[in-house]
Write a structure and sequence with these properties.
By secondary structure, the protein is an alpha+beta fold. It has two domains: 1-45, 3-Layer(aba) Sandwich (Rossmann fold), CATH 3.40.50.2300; 50-150, Winged helix-like DNA-binding domain superfamily/Winged helix DNA-binding domain (Arc Repressor Mutant, subunit A, Orthogonal Bundle), CATH 1.10.10.10. It has five helices and nine strands; from the N terminus they run E-H-E-H-E-E-E-E-H-E-H-H-E-E. It has helices spanning 9-17, 30-45, 77-88, 96-104, 116-130; strands spanning 2-4, 23-25, 51-54, 57-60, 65-68, 71-73, 93-95, 137-140, 144-147. Strand 5 and strand 6 (71-73) form a beta hairpin. The longest helix has 16 residues, at 30-45. The two termini are 34 Å apart.
Length: 150
C-alpha cells in the first residue's frame, strides 16, 4: 500500500503498476486507512481469489454469499462480517472487544459490555449447524473466541 502526498493520476498509476495493491493520498481519514488495510488483509488471506474456504464453509467475497456443504445460508450483515473476520483470523485468539471494534467500528468502545456479541455468534452457530456444518467457534472463557478445528 502506498501512502503519499502525490495525488496526480500519473503518480497513482505508476505506483499501482509498480506492484502496489492500493494507493491512498494525504490527507485521509484514519477510518478510511483502516478499511483499506482490512481490505488488503482479506484479499491477501484469499490468496487473490474471490472465495475464502474453510473446510465445508465457503464465502464468496464478491457476492457476499456463504455456503455450508454446498447449501447457501442466509446471514445477517453482522453475522457475515463476524464469520469473515473469524475465517481470516482462523486459529487466532480473538477478543470480544476486537470483534466488536471490527464489525461495529471505533465508536463501539463507548459500550459498557459486549454481551450482544454472544447473540450474533449463537445465531451464526445455529445457521451453520442447520446445514450440517461443524462448530469451529470455540469459547475461550473470559477472553473471547477462537475459530479452529481444535
Amino acid at each position: 500500500m502506498i501512502v503519499s502526498a502525490k495525488n496526480s493520476l500519473d503518480d497513482k498509476i505508476k505506483g499501482l503498476d509498480m506492484g502496489a495493491d492500493d494507493y491512498i493520498t494525504k490527507p485521509f481519514h484514519l477510518a478510511e486507512l483502516n478499511s483499506r488495510i482490512k481490505s488488503l488483509a482479506r484479499r491477501r488471506q484469499a490468496e487473490g481469489t474471490n472465495e475464502l474456504v474453510f473446510n465445508e464453509i465457503k464465502i464468496n467475497i464478491d457476492s457476499g454469499e456463504v455456503s455450508v456443504n454446498g447449501k447457501l445460508i442466509d446471514l445477517t450483515r453482522k453475522e457475515y462480517e463476524i464469520l469473515l473476520y473469524f475465517i481470516v483470523n482462523k486459529n487466532k485468539l480473538i477478543t470480544r472487544e476486537s470483534i466488536a471494534e471490527h464489525v461495529w467500528g471505533d465508536n463501539i468502545s463507548y459500550v459498557d459490555n459486549f454481551d450482544f456479541i454472544y447473540s450474533h455468534i449463537k445465531n451464526l452457530r445455529k445457521k451453520i449447524d442447520l446445514n450440517k456444518g461443524k462448530n469451529y467457534l470455540h469459547n475461550i472463557y473470559g477472553i473471547g473466541y477462537k475459530f479452529s478445528e481444535r
